[in-house]
Design a protein that fits this description.
By secondary structure, this protein is an alpha/beta fold. About 40% of the residues lie in helices and about 20% in strands. The protein is globular, with a radius of gyration of 18 Å.
Length: about 325
């Protein structure tokens, strides 16, 4: 049986989260992985709605968790609200408590049966680590992670001398809550693989998604609303998903073992350490080659017509 993939996403202000979820669905349809759940780690009501629209397009009813209470917060690009409205998901969607959803998926999996792709903030993962026994498992959160999680791949930080633009040099996912980031780094009881900012910022994927998916795809629409026609977007999150599923991807190497930490401004630092729990990805292939591989997955349209058919039916009956 294929590994279960669980995605943590801040799908809200950047379309590479959409690309990552689309890549995960394409990998699922190809039998490479089983998509077991998606947690949204912002409080915006629009994130879970866009996740639901994408799940519907691919015809896979993946459970969705979301932080509570929800807010009407919008990202600066507002593409999430626009896409959900265009595809009929401008309404409340059922969501689970994110920690309970994580615990249920981990408890149902076999030993080391789950891979986690963390594409945003750490509220839900820290909540999991703090959690106690419940009806899903007699294990506390840290022990449940030890039992059930094979790997976690985190899009976050910056390594190898590269630093994101902006004050302090803190990468976006780490900088949302530096104290929570530090708690996650210190408390996670297994190995963490990092995809740093420097790995993806020159890899532009999604330029040809509209011609591949057509206008009946919320994925293609999200890219057009966020980045404009044919522009694509840096590929931090799709890279993290692909490395979660295939850590031996030949376009990347892994650093030596070490320890990642963050300062008060969320700037990451790296210290090599024999037997350390952390390592980070190093891109060894040209950016264009990596983008081509991402697009091979990202630009695969759904092999079900669920979402497109519903849009057409509702338009015809309007």
């Amino acid at each position: 049986m294929s590994t279960t993939l669980f995605i943590e996403t801040d799908i809200h202000d950047d379309v590479d989260d959409v690309g990552a979820l689309a890549v995960a669905h394409a990998l699922s349809q190809a039998g490479r992985v089983r998509l077991g759940g998606v947690n949204v780690n912002t409080r915006s009501v629009w994130g879970p709605r866009l996740v639901a629209a994408i799940n519907d397009y691919y015809g896979l009813p993946v459970p969705v968790g979301a932080l509570q209470p929800p807010t009407e917060t919008l990202g600066s690009q507002e593409f999430v609200r626009g896409t959900t409205r265009l595809f009929g998901w401008d309404r409340p969607v059922p969501t689970a408590d994110p920690v309970r959803l994580l615990r249920s998926v981990l408890a149902a999996a076999g030993p080391s049966g789950v891979t986690v792709a963390s594409l945003g903030f750490f509220d839900n993962l820290v909540g999991l680590l703090r959690s106690g026994p419940d009806e899903f498992s007699p294990l506390g959160g840290r022990d449940l992670v030890r039992r059930s999680v094979d790997r976690i791949v985190v899009m976050g930080g910056a390594f190898g001398g590269a630093r994101p633009p902006g004050p302090g040099g803190g990468e976006y996912n780490f900088a949302e809550d530096p104290a929570l980031t530090a708690e996650f780094l210190d408390a996670w009881p297994g190995r963490i693989d990092f995809v740093g900012w420097e790995v993806g910022h020159q890899v532009i994927s999604g330029r040809r998604i509209l011609e591949s998916h057509g206008r009946e795809s919320p994925v293609a629409t999200a890219y057009q609303l966020h980045s404009g026609f044919g522009n694509g977007r840096p590929s931090w999150d799709p890279i993290a998903v692909l490395l979660a599923v295939d850590p031996a991807w030949s376009a990347f190497a892994w650093s030596e073992a070490g320890v990642v930490s963050v300062d008060a401004e969320a700037a990451s630092s790296w210290a090599p350490a024999t037997g350390g729990p952390h390592r980070y990805a190093v891109r060894t292939a040209p950016a264009t080659d990596v983008a081509d591989t991402i697009d091979d997955w990202l630009c695969r349209p759904s092999d079900t017509a669920t979402g497109a058919d519903r849009v057409r039916e509702e338009a015809a009956s309007a």
